[in-house]
Amino acid sequence: MNETQALSALAALAHPQRLRVFRALVVAGPAGLLPSVLADRLGVARNTLSFHLKTLAHAGLVTIEQQGRNLIYRAEYGHMNDLIGYLTEHCCEGGSCEVSAFPPCAS
Question: Does the residue 65 lie in any domain?
Fold first, then answer.
């Protein structure tokens, strides 16, 4: 993944509704979801959902498969993992990435 692809994916996820849609597709797993099911679960108008799905697909985070008259939307796990890899590449300068416990700040 390059910087342009990472920026596109992050920009697509930077909207609350698109983030909810993507997370719902991740939870749905490889079976994916029909837009009508997704719209009902999230309480989103179908035309609004269509716009968000298009944006996520353009960013490579969602795939679309036509099955007869239906469209099945799925999270693109490979692209998601590439984004996570890009963000964590060279994490902690090659050292352990464990977060040490810090005492709470005194008020």
Answer: yes
